[in-house]
Amino acid sequence: MLSYAVYVILSVAFVLCLLRESISKRIIRQDAAREAVLVSILNALAGPGQFLAYVTFVLSSSLFTRLGKDYKASKLLSKDIYGRDRLQIIAVGLLPGALGTLCVMLYVAGMHQLATKLMIVPIAMLATSNADTWASEIGVLYKGKPRLILRPSLSVEPGTSGAVSPLGIAASLGGAATIACVGALATRLTEYVLYDLNYSVHMIFIIVLVSGFIGEVSDSILGYLLQEKRRCRVCGTICEHEYHCGEPTEHLWGRKGIKGEHVNMMSQAVSAVTCILLVSLLL
Ligand SMILES: [Zn+2]
């Protein structure tokens, strides 16, 4: 347990350094610092495998948010270029962080088998969040019109929930694969400080990739079904805005109160369930 204690001290120090940088570089908003520390420390306590996956998610998402920044700002395609807010940080990081920390507690309490099987689940949840962020931040740069996932005959405005494009799908696969790769390789580090694992790196990679990607597909489907969709009475464009072409738009389906962050948490749950199924079948 000594190596785990040393690791925790080092990773918490790293979190605090990263936080200062994140605020000054506007990766997160200043008033979201407390939430960011809580979520980051929970993901650190979960062990180096999950922590490196989490750091990869935070850094790569910030990088891709900046991609085409002027284009996104001019078309109002991403408010995230001004930094992530509290709700976004909680929605992507709290559940995986809490579950990863719970696994460590189970392990310390002697429930080794349960803990080692469950510890892959939060990494799969992070893979879904990473896939979703890459898909939206890279996908909005697609020059054509995206289409609704369950009604591909309808093209919609870029940035509409439940819309997909070839570029967005490729980006989400890349996002899930990156976390799967980092998570799988870094579980070797987790073995040094915490768990005794006997899983092959390939198996962890495949399980995280598949459950992460399925979680992201469910994010599009849930976003399509639940989030509000409206139509412009002038040009007929399907969007989520109250106004289009200077006129009020008409409501089609979905509920106004359902935000992307709510859908993100539901899709993490889908990813977690998929991961538990795959772990019990394959490991
Ligand atoms: Zn219009």
Q: What does this protein structure show overall?
A:
The structure is a single chain. With 283 residues, the chain is mainly alpha-helical. The protein has one domain. The protein contains 10 helices and 8 strands. The chain has helices at residues 2-24, 33-45, 48-66, 69-74, 86-108, 112-118, 121-139, 166-193, 201-226, 260-282; strands at 147-148, 151-155, 163-164, 229-231, 238-239, 243-244, 247-248, 250-253. The protein has a 3-stranded antiparallel beta sheet. The protein has a 3-stranded antiparallel beta sheet with strand order 5-4-8. Strands 6-7 form a two-stranded antiparallel ribbon. A hairpin with a 2-residue loop joins strand 1 and strand 2 (151-155). The protein starts with a helix and ends with a helix. It binds zinc ion (ZN). The site of zinc ion has 6 residues, from loops.
